[in-house]
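Loading example: each entry is read as two labelled lines plus one structure line.
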Amino acid sequence: MSINPKTPNPTIKNPRSVLKSRLHAACAATALLLATGSLAQAADLNALIWCDHADPALLQPFEEANGIKVNVKEFEGTGAGMAIVEQSQPGDWDVMVIDSIDIPRGVEKSLFEPLPEDKLPFADLFPQVKMDSSTVVNGKRYGITEKFGYNTIGYNKTKVDPADMQSMAALTGDKYKGKIAIYDYYLPVIGMAALAIGKKTAELTEADLPAIKEELLKMKANAKLVGEVTASQTALATGEVDILVGGGEWVTAGLAKENPALDFSIPKEGAVLWSQSLAMFKDSENKDMALKFIQYIMSPEGQARLATSACYWGMPANTKAALSDEQKKILRFDEQPDFLARAQPYPAPNADLDKKMQDVWTEMLQAQ
Amino acid sequence: MNPAKNSGRALPRAGCALPRAGCALRWALVTPALGWTLLFFVLPFLAMALSSLTAHDGGGFTLANYSQFFANPAYWQAMVNSLQVTAIVTLISVLLAYPFAWILAEQVPERWQRLALMLAVLPFWTSYVVRSYSWLLVLAQNGVINRALTGSGLFSEPVQLANTRLATVIGFVHFFVMLLTLTIFANLKQLSPSYRKAAADLGAGPVRTFLHVILPLTLPGIMVGAFLTFVLCIGDYITPQILGGNNELLMPQLVMMQIGRRGDFPLASALSIILMAVVTIAYLACARWLKIERA
């Protein structure tokens, strides 16, 4: 269903809200947009993406098949992505890659268009990654999971005992002190800390934060660094550390050829399931092509290319992804039913708890 | 020369003592710069200041973003860390850059100075990010330095250099020594040899001449370079993010943290304003000390 852009938006309360929204956008997104060097072109397909979608091996087949250019703008973090959208004109963007748990944030801002379920391969998705609690809002589906994986324990199996990696206790014990890196993203690692102390990630409350903080501080005391994607990947690949808390196939699979010693485990306490989705913008002026793009990404061929993208690998959401046997082995495709059964959802806190979790993370980073 | 003063006439109006045509020309010349500053500094700054006074969750005017900074020790610590790192970097950079600039200006023959300067600023030619990652590899457990340390038998185990405050300081100093060298070198070259000759005539030795004549005269160059180092260092995100290993947070990292996922621009704006206030205080301190403020 298409929403008329002229319809008054019920979420806009008063001029102050409008002013505030403009100010926020002006403060950050101007810089982000200027940095791109070019604004989105209405005639092409314009996509706000994560780095895995920038791989020419993924985009070129779609561009050639449809005679269209896909303009991409990479961003990190939903907040940064939303700022770009707020600073853009309606219709500038057609599709967006977003954390599955953040789709409701986009729906709340009236950004997304419901997706036609009958035109997308929902039946072929791993059932556990459909993420209906996030992707379906008020009975309408606004996102489709395209890729997933685990925030768990990544390690070098020639340097650590794989048996130790079956328990999160190894992360806080003395045996691997100074050999550990922590992935610098508070939600999944807080999720892992919660699992380590026996909490369920979907049921976290403010009352759990002191115990989680204590667990995080123990991990920090053992860690050599807390790094974002590239830094933590580099640290594991170069032998600076032997274990990556929060790592998983997204770190180890892409490096498998160069460094087959890298592996990941799903410890007995479980792992945190991450997933990314595709959403279509309500104001897109190219909805047919946007849907075609989503269909391409969700096709067996598109899924295989996305799963093995140059930026990072991850499990394709579509069970029929056209992966080679070698690629399936690296991604441990056949073990997914067991992994999924033991994984817990990504923490999806409300705004207040989210802020408190980030503050706990800040305190952990500052702890010496 | 002030023509109005010489003619004995009163100034037409404050700020413009020139004839009407001269005044117009002066304003015409200065307008583009003023417009640029207004458009790309004053207005964004006002937008940021207003944003810092709004609530992230949709409320109205609030000082909560500022009070959060003062109430949360982890936030405070970021400022303390930033100031400590910046002070260390500035001090080390000055101590290294001065002798370097001195050698360039005084010991290197005139015809080689241009080449020497070019070599000195060579690090500026590489990407900031690439340079930081290069340092990470140099300082890593298996990097050049640790191999040399363990290979020479000085240490039996690799020393943790990467992902520390030391690594951040090294990355900064590598960059800012070049900057300071340029400002101090320019200052030294402007010094007339007569000062040294006069000091010698009056019986001052080389050390006394340096301490009482050369150093005070080159202080403006040092202070300009030190202030630039302070400003660029305290606002830098890349170097501590890549080399520091996030084992402690500095202010720019704290600011970026508010934006990534939560998009909390009001808090990020408040933290940026606080950071800017510190830079302003540093500027005022420098300006006052150098007596370059205008009455």
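Chain A touches chain B through 44 residues (CB under 8 Å).
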